[in-house]
Amino acid sequence: MGTSTATKANYQPALEKLLTRFGDQASTAESVRDHHGHGEGWFPTNPPDLVVFAKSTEDVADAVRICAEHKVPVIPYGTGTSLEGHLNALEGGVSIDLSQMDEVLSVNAEDLDCRVQAGVTREQLNEHLRATGLFFPIDPGANASLGGMTATRASGTNAVRYGTMRENVLGLTVVTADGRIVKTGGRARKSAAGYDLTRIFVGSEGTLGIITEVQLRLYGIPEAISSAVCQYPDLESAVNTVILTIQSGIPIARIELLDDIQMGACITYSELEGYEAKPTLFCEFHGTEASVQEQAEQVKAISDEFGGSAFAWTSKTEDRNKLWKARHDAYFAAKTLAPTKKGMATDACVPISNLAECILETQKDVQESGLIAPIVGHVGDGNFHLVLLFDPDDAEEMKRAKGLVERLNHRAIAYGGTCTGEHGIGIGKMPYLTAEHGEAISLMRALKKAFDPDNIMNPGKMISV
Amino acid sequence: MGTSTATKANYQPALEKLLTRFGDQASTAESVRDHHGHGEGWFPTNPPDLVVFAKSTEDVADAVRICAEHKVPVIPYGTGTSLEGHLNALEGGVSIDLSQMDEVLSVNAEDLDCRVQAGVTREQLNEHLRATGLFFPIDPGANASLGGMTATRASGTNAVRYGTMRENVLGLTVVTADGRIVKTGGRARKSAAGYDLTRIFVGSEGTLGIITEVQLRLYGIPEAISSAVCQYPDLESAVNTVILTIQSGIPIARIELLDDIQMGACITYSELEGYEAKPTLFCEFHGTEASVQEQAEQVKAISDEFGGSAFAWTSKTEDRNKLWKARHDAYFAAKTLAPTKKGMATDACVPISNLAECILETQKDVQESGLIAPIVGHVGDGNFHLVLLFDPDDAEEMKRAKGLVERLNHRAIAYGGTCTGEHGIGIGKMPYLTAEHGEAISLMRALKKAFDPDNIMNPGKMISV
Fold it and tell me: Which chain A residues are closer than 8 Å to B423 by Cβ?
């Protein structure tokens, strides 16, 4: 992973040009570089040589053009919340921080769409939309930037109903690897006009170009929203409730699983009252008053079949917010189970019919590993997470944690699933990408080479070239 | 468009190898070649030199490998229903007919998905699914093959609720331009694992590879389905009903517009009773009994505001089928307005807020052109069609028809829309692709070159290389 001093010396002319072009919008300060050399994952920091704080698409294009001229690596940076090492500057180079590109450019309430600069966060967008009666549903937990969410094909708790970034990005502005500014997609709801460039960049993790603007679908805030919590005697019953709910076609907006360990941690961390440390589902229903009622009754009937506790209901905004804040804080709650350790958050996703087997085998594997690793997930999509707690200075424990992650990924793939439902490949999942996609990797490599022939865009991530 | 005799002579070794390899699965008969040299559009026939009837992915791979070796053009063929000249063998070469690859490979009712060979048609799939309580909603009117529908990113009447092929294809088997067999995507509902190769091939019109298998999302047949017909004093009122329905977030399953001329033609052609030749909406609602009722009442209230006639209701399957058959036969009905002429079917799609302006300006343009060209469309998506009737032997009339199409496309693009919502680019829309996408065309060209360096896959279509 190290970069030779000789290579780094080659970067010098580019760094000087960037400092001249960007002045106090560029920094080589160690603290700034360190901050930009990692995400929220467990990977050790690899700082870039320089950070550029872009304020416009033209800034990004200028920075990339200078880097391209000197073949210097470029790593786009949003809010730093990625989990699989996407932000690490493995070969040094330049981090382009887009967080100051935080303008909502337009909201077309009539067309249920908007255009934002890449640094706008999802919470900022929803705050901006407050008066319009619209919202943007994709919610990966972290208050990530919409550019970063696009680049990692993010999803989260609402995806079971509203889809992921794949379904909700209508178009993009992208700076290509040679520093050109390109617009993809458009504002029409559908189009059969040419290759789907938008979807090529959604999930490309900064390896094909830098996303600077995003056109997004919006939705009307539902007339009625209602949440429910239900607890189960065992994990299998909770998962089976989810499977039957999805198979019945109930348009549930959120259905989240927490295993007993995770629920115990959340009760303490988020001061949830009236619950036990048991396998638990957090549900949410969106619709008209009548349809929310209907959906909730349908799910309750299924839940009863599997021995679920009485639904703890709420349609009060305050209570709902507390519940979902607790869900979003699950990672931090999990970490309190072993405060001196680090958390390794990993995710996998399988077809819903294999979800019970995959989760139960994973739970058994966790128990046999002797590690603390609660299970939590967006189970309506077949997507779930492990948060493995490990001591980075304990090589044996780290090896056990990595082994558990490795087995989880191969298990998900064997069950017809994917090694990542939403976190992306980064550096953490590279070994599993080939296992999952086989020969198709050659096409991914051809695409990478076509769009980034000098391999300067976030090099060393996703696929090796 | 002509191919020199010298080039054609170079094809000979490949054609001989193909005849040896495929025996009576290959044909050079003139009638067979002519049949494979056009779709349902108005473009004159360009026959291929040979047609291969593939029975397996391996057949396709073998045929492509032989063609690749000798740089002979390859054109995939499904049911021949494409409208923009996708199937014309502009430079001769080999048409690979996939219609005999018509096996439904698996249905996973529990996961709401299935896998089909590319030659399975949408009606065949729905017939196959009949006993399962599931259906595949994408319905472009023609009984097209699912491979062809994937390749053109088809949509149709149900797309307003269920999305297009873009949203409903989970994965593919593809034969690459060098004859390798590659699987893309998977069965998980979502994945953040690598570039979205599936969506690269959806809508690629045979120019990047040949789709031989498709993994599709399925849906439960709704508990209740109800259709309604409503007629309006003018086109604007009909379109405004659509706009407000969509903007209100009503999850309508189908909402189709027919202008007065089209409705008049359909009344005669399909023997519809009790209607007038006025601007008309055909609507369909899917859901539980309660939600269908609720949706219909909401739309009726909007329709009343715009002077719509009393809803003509039906939830009888037989009546509904008659209605939708009439809608699907709109093209044939339109052609009866001038039986000696040819039909030029074109489509465009705009953001819903611009739909009224775009349709009304188009109607005015049609009136001023002196042509017969009814308007019909999947207006819930902002997508509509013109069927222009013209005499191919009347150069002046043909020029007027082409002028109308050209202005429609530029108008749609100027309104923030696309030159094709669902028919694809083929050869008919190539001039507008650049107008719509600008600099992004360079990325499309880079992709084409990366996946098909010798330009043998459906050459001369979509983008010029």
Answer: 192
The per-residue pLDDT for range B341-377, each reduced to its tens digit, is: 999 999 999 999 999 999 999 999 999 999 999 999 9
The complex scores an ipTM of: 0.96
C-beta separation of B290 from A294 below 8 A: yes
Whether residue A192 and residue B422 make contact (CB cut-off 8 A), yes or no, is yes
The answer to whether A190 contacts B164, with C-beta atoms less than 8 Å apart, is yes
Could you list the residue range(s) of the whole structural domain that residue B256 is in?
Answer: 224-331
**Where do the H-state alpha helices sit in A140-288?**
146-151, 159-162, 165-168, 197-201, 235-247, 260-269
End-to-end CA distance of chain B: 15
Please choose, from the candidates B181, B151, B74, the residue with its C-alpha nearest in 3D space to the C-alpha of residue B452: B74
Sheet holding A224-231: strands in order across? A312-314, A224-231, A280-287, A254-258, A375-377, A383-390, A342-349
Does residue B365 form part of some domain?
Answer: yes
Chain B residues within 8 A of A351 when measuring between CB atoms: 108, 110-111, 113, 187-189
Kindly state whether residues B77 and B118 are assigned to the same domain. Answer: no
B263 and B326 part of one domain? yes
- Domain presence at residue A447: no
Q: Are residues B244 and B319 in the same domain?
A: yes
Please state the φ and ψ torsions of residue A89, each to the nearest 5 degrees.
-90, 80
As a whole number of angstroms, the distance between CA B247 and CA B257 comes to: 17
Chain A / chain B CB contacts < 8 angstroms: 286
Residue whose tokens read 């009773």: B273
A59-73 residue pLDDT tens: 999 999 999 999 999
- Single-letter residue type at A81: T
Query: Is the same domain home to A118 and A215?
Result: yes
- Which of B99, B116, B146 marks a domain boundary? B99
In angstroms, the separation between the Cα of residue A357 and the nearest Cα of chain B is 14
Residue spans of chain A under pLDDT 70: 1-7
pLDDT the model gives residue A306: 96
Query: Do A355 and A286 reside in the same domain of the chain?
Result: no
* CATH code for position A165: 3.30.465.10
Average pLDDT over residues B285-309: 94
Contact residues, chain B, for A199 at CB < 8 Å: 166, 196, 199-200
Provide mean pLDDT across the span B8-29.
95
- Cβ distance B352 to A110 less than 8 Å, yes or no, reads yes
Residues in chain A: 465
Q: Which band of pLDDT confidence, cut at 50, 70 and 90, is reported for residue B1?
A: very low
Residue B37 scores a pLDDT above 60: yes
B432 contact residues in A (CB cutoff 8 A): 193
CATH number at residue A375: 3.30.70.2740
Q: Are B158 and B139 in contact, with CB atoms under 8 Å apart?
A: yes
Residues A276 and A318 in one domain: yes
**pLDDT digits over B141-153, tens only?**
999 999 999 999 9
How far does the CA of residue B326 sit from the closest CA of chain A (Å)?
24
> What residues of B are in contact with residue A176 (Cβ under 8 Å)?
443
Residue B393 domain-assigned (yes or no): yes
List Cα–Cα distances, A101 to A21, A35, A78, A89, A146, in angstroms: 18, 18, 9, 21, 11
What are B267-283's pLDDT values in tens digits?
999 999 999 999 999 99
Contact state of B182 with A440 under an 8 Å Cβ cutoff = yes
With CB atoms and an 8 Å threshold, state whether B196 touches A219: no
A25 min Cα distance to partner chain B (Å): 28
Query: Do the beta carbons of residue B277 and residue B246 sit within 8 Å?
Result: no
Q: Is the dihedral of CA B154, B160, B166, B172 positive or negative?
A: negative
Let me know whether B213 and B117 are in one domain: yes
Q: How many domains does chain B have?
A: 4
For chain A, the first-to-last Cα distance in angstroms comes to 15
**Pair B306, B361 in one domain:** no
CATH at A23:
3.30.43.10
